[in-house]
Write a structure and sequence with these properties.
The complex is a heterotrimer of chains A (106), B (511) and C (119). By secondary structure, chain A is mainly alpha-helical. Chain A has three helices and two strands, in the order ββααα. Chain A has a domain at 34-106. In chain A, 74% of the residues lie in helices and 8% in strands. Chain A has a two-stranded antiparallel sheet. By secondary structure, chain B is α+β, with helices and mostly antiparallel strands. Chain B folds into two domains: 2-46 and 128-212 and 330-507, no CATH class; 55-121 and 238-316, no CATH class. Chain B has helices at residues 2-33, 37-44, 55-69, 128-137, 144-166, 183-195, 198-211, 213-216, 219-224, 229-236, 254-265, 319-332, 338-366, 375-404, 412-430, 436-461, 470-494; strands at residues 75-79, 88-93, 109-112, 269-275, 283-288, 300-304, 310-313. Chain B has a seven-stranded antiparallel sheet with strand order 3-2-1-4-5-6-7, covered by helices on one side. The chains are: A mainly alpha (106), B alpha+beta (511), C mainly alpha (119). Chain A: Keywords: Membrane, Transmembrane, Transmembrane helix. Chain A: This is Iron transporter.
Chain lengths: 106, 511, 119
């Protein structure tokens, strides 16, 4: 399904179809990129919520799993891989940069 | 658009369920078993009688023993017994030697008789702890086991959400369960076990992830705390650690402190931590047990170890921390009385059924009558047999080993664990010499025999069942019921299926 | 705990009767009956929730959901074995003759005529 035999010559090579690369990229985005997305989103939320430090941290941690699950499923519901990769990896980068730039709560 | 969403969710639901299914089956099975963790431990150490000592007195006898064997320890962590746990467990943090030599290899965990404080004389076993630890560590070294379990739990969460999204007639199908219709029946069984207990499965899965949230998602702590250790102190209301002064001072009697704490905190004490005993800076922290509230993080009272004066009580936590405590408590369910606990056990079994029927549905939907099964189908079928029929056999072997191995054998606790995995492994491999149908029949039959043997072996090797001890009667009855269920499964598996598959795999979820 | 499960089970039997596949077994002939059954089932579930109190704060919702799920699974299993027998009480309930047997739509004159003819 993902790989097919190419050519009928003496040296039969296994060819990886483009769809396989796309699916691999989608899976990596949904599992790893999504983790970065959820972690940076949770960190940013915890840092910025104007409530007690321990409370903000706890809320962010509790809700992070729900965010991960929903974004993860969206990665497979959305047909356009470019959009998926852009939102997830791009979002993780932006939010991570924001958290790093804002710095730890004093 | 909704149809495309349903189709993509059906696709990911199948993949998430398949990839994580075998591990999730094992996690649900051992987790459901762990509702009765202390009872299993008691059954596996029949030499120890049920506990009748109050926590305060158990604390006193434990401290008396510890003063004899570890008066210069840094910390004593004492888990107190209750009506389900028959022993006092102590973890000593010993003082590092002054000359920098490596620490003496004295046992770090002590198991004491609550009434006398003496170390218990009973067969060495892991007891219910084995199933409990397997449930979230999968017998792998730290941290890989917990991470793998966490990944599987997240796959489960995705499978739940995608399963609900993709189920087109979730209310119309509520009461649909048709027997003897092959693939249709597996789908109905999967829907029934999943949908009717959906609140339970969703809560168990999410709260399961929450139990290890600090490991899986520590980043918000790093964003808010320059010193991450402060988070635990603020969240759990712990007093900051104090150093030993070095001036010796006698430790105050702990039993009155425990009773005072129980009165203040409104529940029986679950554990006490004595820091720097016999030092002028000694403190005694008494924590309420988990049976006293749905929220699992017990409140504590801290006293001076030299004068017995109350130093602090955990302040009531804010809404977020309370939520976290309740989520943890819902997963552990230590607040549950016997009736509720048995119902939770049944729902846990429905979770096992949900995962098992899902795996079986996968193969049923892809089997073509008259066509040779493709490699993936054969692999999944064999893994299904190895897990669904093999794991119960392994668990029964663990319990049988507890009764059959010599009581004073060295390394017996590890031998019991080995019995479970060698049996499971052998069953998983040897089933391949049989056809799939006969492998199902034979492994289920062996499991039935193993479970049926447990009450018999119990009666022959220990006096408790004959004496009518209620825990042993209930346990052995449950084993007999398991044996009947497996025998029934074996008979059903031996039948040659009648109805040919008519629906294509793609239509499985959407009819 | 047991009473929560029993009341919830009763509610689920009534709800099952309104499911399309079981309507014939339940003896449903009018949409009004479906609505009535659902209302009663809802009231029973509310009663189960009220009865589900436990000694600890917050235990009620746990007991209600747990008891409800156990009841649901039990009812569906029972229905899968013998739906007709499980729904027999609903059939009996729906077939009882109403006290005001004459429908209001029959005009008064026709009622008087019928009474006269019966003599």
């Amino acid at each position: 399904m993902l790989m097919g035999r190419a050519g009928s010559g003496a040296a039969r090579r296994w060819r990886i179809r483009p769809a396989a690369w796309a699916m691999t990229a989608r899976c990596l985005t949904a599992f790893l990129g999504n983790y970065a997305f959820a972690a940076t989103a949770a960190s940013l939320t915890a840092r910025l919520l104007p409530i007690a430090r321990v409370e903000a941290t706890a809320w962010a941690m509790i809700l992070s799993f729900l965010l991960y699950a929903i974004v993860g499923l969206w990665c497979f519901a959305e047909a356009r891989l470019a959009r998926v990769a852009g939102v997830v990896w791009g979002g993780a980068l932006l939010m991570g940069a924001a958290v790093w730039w804002i710095g730890v709560r004093p | 658009m909704i149809r495309a969403l349903r189709q993509s969710m059906a696709w990911i639901h199948g993949w998430l369920g398949l990839v994580a299914g075998w591990l999730l089956f094992a996690m649900f099975a051992t987790g459901t078993t762990s509702y009765f963790r202390p009872e299993i431990t008691r059954w596996m150490q029949p030499e120890i009688a049920a506990n009748r000592t109050a926590p305060a007195d158990a604390a006193a006898t434990a401290v008396r023993h510890l003063q004899r064997v570890g008066a210069d320890d840094v910390q004593w962590f004492i888990a107190l017994p209750d009506d389900r746990t028959a022993v006092t467990r102590v973890f000593e943090q010993q003082k590092p030697p002054a000359d920098g030599a490596p620490r003496r290899r004295r046992a770090e965990e002590l198991v004491l008789d609550p009434a006398t404080g003496a170390p218990v004389a009973a067969r060495d076993t892991r007891g219910g702890e084995h199933f409990y630890r397997f449930h979230f560590q999968l017998q792998l070294p730290f941290p890989w086991g917990r991470w793998l379990a966490g990944v599987c739990a997240m796959f489960m969460l995705g499978a739940i959400i995608s399963g609900v999204v993709t189920h087109k007639r979730i209310f119309a199908d509520f009461f649909t369960l048709r027997w003897n219709k092959g693939q249709r029946s597996w789908l109905d069984a999967h829907n029934v076990s999943a949908v009717l207990a959906l609140p339970y499965h969703a809560v168990i899965t999410y709260t399961g992830l929450i139990t290890l949230v600090v490991m899986y998602m520590p980043w918000p702590i790093a964003a808010n705390y320059p010193q991450p250790a402060r988070f635990a102190q603020e969240a759990y209301g712990l007093a900051p650690d104090v150093e030993a002064i070095g001036r010796p001072a006698p430790l105050v009697a702990v039993a009155p402190l425990v009773r005072d704490a129980e009165r203040r905190l409104g529940g029986a004490a679950g554990r006490i931590v004595v820091s720097h005993p016999n030092d002028a800076a000694a403190t005694v922290t008494v924590t309420r047990g988990n049976a006293a509230s749905v929220g699992a993080r017990g409140v504590s009272a801290t006293y001076s170890g030299t004068t017995g004066r109350l130093l602090s009580v955990t302040p009531p936590p804010g809404p977020a921390i309370t939520t976290a405590n309740v989520l943890l408590g819902l997963h552990l369910a230590q607040f549950a009385g016997p009736g509720l606990r048995w119902m939770l056990f049944l729902l846990g079994l429905s979770g096992v059924a949900m995962v098992g029927t899902g795996l079986l549905l996968w193969t049923a939907a892809r089997r073509r009558p008259g066509a040779a099964p493709f490699f993936g189908l054969r692999l999944v079928e064999r893994l299904n047999i190895a897990t669904i029929a093999g794991l119960p056999l392994g668990m029964a072997a663990f319990l049988l080993a507890n009764r059959l191995l010599p009581v004073d054998m060295a390394g017996r606790a590890d031998a019991e664990v080995a019995a479970m995995f060698w049996t499971w492994g052998a069953a998983a491999l040897l089933q391949c010499v049989r056809t799939a149908r006969l492998a199902w029949r034979d492994l289920f039959a062996l499991g039935a025999l193993a479970f049926a043997a447990i009450p018999i072996v119990d009666a022959l090797t220990t006096p408790r069942l004959a004496a009518g001890d209620p825990l042993f009667v209930a346990f052995d009855l449950a084993m007999a019921v398991m044996a009947l269920a497996l025998a029934f499964a074996s008979r059903r598996a031996a039948r040659i299926p009648a109805a040919p598959v008519r629906r294509s795999a793609r239509k499985v979820a959407h009819a | 705990m047991p009473d929560t499960i029993l009341i919830a089970a009763l509610a689920f039997v009534l709800l099952a009767a309104t499911a399309h596949r079981h309507r014939r077994d339940a003896g449903i002939v009018a949409p009004g009956q479906v609505r009535a059954l659902r209302v009663v089932a809802g009231a029973l579930l509310l009663a189960a929730f009220v009865r589900a109190a436990g000694p600890l704060a917050g235990e009620r919702i746990v007991r209600f959901l747990v008891g409800g799920s156990v009841a649901g699974i039990a009812v569906v299993l029972a229905l899968s074995f013998d739906a007709a027998r499980v729904l027999a009480p609903v059939r009996w309930l729906l077939s009882r003759p109403r006290p005001a047997a004459v429908p209001a739509t029959v005009p008064a004159r026709a009622r008087a005529t019928a009474r006269a003819q019966r003599g």
